Amino acid sequence: MPRTSRAVKLAALPDGLPGPEHFSVVDVPVPVPADGEVLVRNRYFQVFPSLRTLIGGGVKGTPFPPLRPGDTLFGAAVGEVVAAPGVAGLRPGDLVRHWLGWREHAVMPAGQCAPLDGTLPDPAAHLGQAGVAYTALARDARVRPGDTVFVSGGGGGVGSLAGQIARLLGADRVVGSTGSPDKAARLVSELGYDAAVVRGGRPIAEQLAEAAPGGIDVLVDNVGGEQLQAAITAARPGARFVLVGTLAGQLAPDRSGTTAPVEIDTFQLIAKRIEMRGFGGLDDAGPRPEWTERVGAWLRSGDLTFPHVRVAGIEHAPRALQELIGGRHLGAVIVEL
C-alpha cells in the first residue's frame, strides 16, 4: 500500500460557474480502516452537474451537504476493496459502489457501500443514470404503449438513456432537447429519439410543436425553464410530468445554482389535468431492484447502450467538470483511475 493518495478539494468559491482553477488535486494520507470499516481503492467516479449546486451552498431538504473551501468533493464511485477488517461478506478485490468519489482511496462504514453482483455487464455502468431514467419513466410517469414522450436534456446522463428506455417501454414517439445541432443529430441516429429540438435557436415551444404535432403524454424534465413551459403548452389532456433536474437554473452563470425559478401557466395545468411530480428517488431497498435486472438484460442484448465519456486520471477531473458544465460531452462523464 502507498502511504499517500490523491484527492480533489475545493480550493476557492467561484464567482459564477466553477473552473479548474477553483479546485486542487492534493496528496493525502491513505486512510486506515477501523473494525467494521472498508478501505476502497477507487477505479471510477462520476462527474455530475449538481456539484455546482453544492458549491453554491446546497439546497435545504436535499440529502447532500454544501461544499466549502478545503472540502474533498464527493460523488458516486466504484472501487475495489483493499481491506475490510471485521466485515463479513467483503474480501479484498471485491467491487463496491459508494459515494466517496473524487479521491483515489476512501474509507467508510461497511453499510455505506454496496457490493456489485455483475447484474450490469460493465462496472462503470453503475455510475450511469439508467436507474433514474427507468424509474422516472416506468414508475413515476407510467409510460404506456403509444405515448409520445419529451425528454429535456436528452444528451445528458439521464436523457441519453431515457430516450432509449422510453422506446423499450413502448413509447410510440420520443423527442429530446439538446444544446447543439450535432448532438441533436446523435440523439436521433444513436439514442432512440425520433426528433430533437435545439435550445438557443428558434423558441423551444415552436420546435416542439413541429416535432410532436399531436402533443406529448409524458415529460421527463432535466432542465426546467423554457423547456418546461414548452412542454406544458404541448401537453395532451392527462399528461404526466416527472421533474428530475433543473439544469436551466443549476448551470446559469448569473445564479448561485441553488434556485431554478420558472413562470408557468397554472390554468393550463388545470385545464389539461396535467400531473406534475418531482422524481421520487430510487427504490433500492431490495437486494436487486427491478431496474437493474431490466437494464442489465437490455445492455447485454444490445437493445440499450450506455453513452459515456471516460477521462483518464484524477488530475483531469476538474477539467472534466468544466467540460460537462459547458455541454461538451454526450452522456455520462466518468473519471477512470
UniProtKB/TrEMBL annotation:
Q: Known InterPro entries for this protein?
A: ADH-like_C, ADH_N_2, ER, GroES-like_sf, MDR_fam, NAD(P)-bd_dom_sf
Q: What sequence ranges are listed for the domain Enoyl reductase (ER)?
A: 16-335
Q: Which UniProt keywords apply?
A: Oxidoreductase
Classify the source by domain of life.
Bacteria
Instruction: Write one Pfam family the protein is assigned to.
Output: ADH_zinc_N
Q: Name one GO molecular function term.
A: oxidoreductase activity, acting on the CH-CH group of donors, NAD or NADP as acceptor
Protein name from the UniProt record: NADPH-dependent curcumin reductase CurA
Upper lineage ranks? Bacteria, Bacillati, Actinomycetota, Actinomycetes, Streptosporangiales
